[in-house]
Amino acid sequence: MLSKHNLMNKEQFIYTPFTEKDEVKSNNFGKIVSKYFYHWPLFLICLVITISLAILYIQFTNSVYHVKAKISINDNKNKDNKEKEAALEQLNLSTGSKVVESEVEIIKSRPLLRDVVQDLQLWANYKETVDYKTTDIYATTPFKVQLVGSSKLLYSNNFKVVIIDKDNYRVVTDKGEMAGKFTAPFKTEFGTIKLMPTTKLNKYLGKTIKVSLTPEEDVVTAYQEKITATFNKSAPMVELNLEDEVPLRGIQILNRLVVVYKNSNILDKNKETLSTLKFIDERLGSLSTELTDAEKTVEGYKSSIGLTDISSKSQYYLNNIQSNDGRLGEVNVQLNVIRGIENYVNSTKGSDNPPATIGITDPNLISLVSRLSTLMLERDQLLATAPENNPIFYSVNSEVKSIKGAIRESIKNIKASLINTNRELNKISSGYEGSIRDIPGQERKYVSIKRQRDNKESLYVYLLQKREEVALSYASTLKDARIVENAYVGNPDSKKKGPLTLALLAGLILPITLITSRDALRNRILTIKDIESGTSAPVIAELIQEPQKSELVMLNKGAYAITEQIRNLRTNILQQSEVGKGQVILMSSSVAGEGKSFVASNLALSLASTGKKTVMIELDLRKPRLSKLFQIPESQLGMSDYLKGGIDKNEVIIQSELNPNLYLIGSGSIPDNPSELLEGTNIRTLIDELRLEFDQILIDSPPMHLVTDGLILAPFCDICLYLIRHNHTSKSELRFIEELHSANKVSNLFLVFNGVFMDNRYGYSVDYGYYAAESYVKPAFSNFSLRF
């Protein structure tokens, strides 16, 4: 066993001129870049693929044109606009101020876009494929699809039309082919359609047109997303933007949308005026009949009695009654209007048409009714773009409620005043009627009949006058929207920059993701920090991954990195030996392929080169490799023969031709029960005898985590060199190593980190210039296959 002094100094190893990047304070960014740059062929292939796909995409993708239009929206809050609407305000017909922000949403509302889609038949799309490239031929389509009768698109439909001649065509669908004639109805699974030829038909004879039909509502939704509207509050100016493959279609869509918006705006502004005209027309219709009947009554009475004139006194009373009745008629009209306003305000469902304010002289009530009408109109417009439970309605509903309360209070006072006036006027009429009773009977009866006729006539004239005023306001409605710039097309959007940028990003991200995922899935040990984080067992040496022609690298002359590292391992091991006693070194690992035989054979050569009498025992009886490395004859007796008994150790020990101080004991024939052979006493006897004869005894054993042979041999050994191979040994094996170390199942367990790629990827820096000129210099692009 080792002395106490050596146990205390087992961590005091001699280090090689290979330094970790952390020691030279290299930044982590350079380390990450170096890690991924090592796989440059993978990046190159991914970039070639993604850029090629991007170029193909650009070749087969049509250009997109930017279409723009500008309109100016009058904000009635401005002073100039108020002056322009002075005429309407005098007639009590102004609809109040307009909020430009809400108009932007109204322009893109579904009702307006639905009109545009219907007018331009945007639910039908026509395309032609030439040289594998599909082009939209909206501007030059040879025919137009028309829905016949009640046909309605409920789902998307695609079919091809082969134009045979100017009269005939053939429809190709997934279900088969059918012949048809232009302008003739054609039955489909979703309804009846017609193909109406255009002036471009002759250019497409013999060609195939692909037709795509989309439900109207889906098209409306698509254009709500495509069309963007931005506004400038200070102007106020609204700019409409649309991207389209066909510039003509984009121009037509925006121009038509502006027209539809203007027409809708005018209709909204005239709702109040139309409501007033409707009220007056209804009253005039009934008054016209009543006035005609009254005139016929007067005429008939005068003819029946031969009355030609009446006295001056009768005329005086008659004129006063006519004047009083005229005022009474106006009051009754105002009462009717007040009742209409009252019904509108008290209605829970609301009304499409705002109430008339004809004849109302109270400016406060007129202003309140106008503001209420404006709010209800704004509310209806918002409903076209947002649900009723949207928080945007809270302020509108609150203001509507407040204004309705104010209108009710105002109506209460005005109604009471009008009722009192009506009562007083009726008293005056009663007084005049009493005076008329003193007039002779025929004159009195005539005055009464004529009074009714004149009353209706004055009211009829009054309503005619008001109707002319309202009609004048309807004809001269001010437009809130004015076209500043009709739709125009800008330069086509370049399709190169976007796809190429995405291709470059994808070409870099894809291999990075692949490498990172692969490393995470492999879960292999890559750095010394991985080992330190998984086990407390010390690392005695790190051996570089360096390709050589022969596995026995210690036979190479000159200064090589790997040979210097093996010499460093030799020095560290010799520091642990006791003077005058053979040191037994067990070589083991977790799994196969971690380099036990390579390290054992070269370490043995290195020890022998220092004059140490060294013997190497091949105890990996299942898969021996040392016999092949040192070319031991198959006829040579080995360990399996010795452990079976009956032969002397000198019969299995042979001297190596490579170094006179190196002796070998091969595995011999492969036994059926290697573990049982090792459990015998012969192995202890052999090791005890070899300790007396040799300075160093190296045992190459099987992987310790796979078979039990290594644990059987461990008690006979002074040092166990446990191999861990870079990017080969799983991190899960560190738990097994830690268990061996912490439970002291193996004495003096030291780790050898083998096959390390000592480059910037893993935090190493190797000065190859330190070695001799003939030393192996790592090529710039070594291990090419591993770089994928």
Notes on the structure:
By secondary structure, the protein is an alpha/beta fold. It has 24 helices and 23 strands. A hairpin with a 2-residue loop joins strand 3 and strand 4. The model is unreliable at 1-26, 77-98 and 772-776 (pLDDT under 50).
Q: Can you tell me the residue ranges where pLDDT is under 50 for at least 5 consecutive residues?
A: 1-26, 77-98, 772-776
Structural category: alpha/beta
> How big a fraction of the residues is strand?
15-25%
What's the count of strands? 23
Query: Termini, distance in Å?
Result: 48 Å
* Percent helix: 40-55%
Mean pLDDT: 78
* Number of DSSP helical runs: 24
Biggest sheet: strands side by side, in what order? 15-22-21-16-20-17-19-18
Largest sheet at a glance?
A: 8 strands, mixed
| Shape summary | elongated
Which oligomerization state do the chains in this entry correspond to? single chain
Radius of gyration (CA) equals 53 Å
Provide tags for this entry.
788 residues, alpha/beta, 8-stranded mixed beta sheet, 6-stranded antiparallel beta sheet, 24 helices, elongated, disordered N terminus
Write a compact overview of the structure shown.
The protein contains 24 helices and 23 strands.
List the helices and strands and how they pair.
Layout: H1 4-8, E1 18-20, H2 28-37, H3 40-59, E2 64-73, H4 79-84, H5 86-90, H6 100-107, H7 110-120, E3 124-130, E4 133-136, E5 143-148, E6 157-163, E7 168-173, E8 176-181, E9 186-188, E10 191-197, E11 208-213, H8 216-226, E12 228-232, E13 237-244, H9 247-269, H10 271-305, H11 312-346, H12 363-383, H13 392-436, H14 441-475, E14 481-493, H15 497-522, H16 528-534, E15 539-544, H17 561-574, E16 583-589, H18 596-609, E17 614-618, H19 626-629, H20 639-644, E18 653-655, E19 662-665, H21 674-678, H22 682-693, E20 696-700, H23 709-713, E21 719-725, H24 733-742, E22 749-756, E23 764-766
Parallel strand pairs: 15-22, 16-20, 16-21, 17-19, 17-20, 21-22
Antiparallel strand pairs: 1-23, 2-13, 2-14, 3-4, 3-11, 5-10, 6-7, 6-11, 7-8, 9-10, 12-13, 18-19
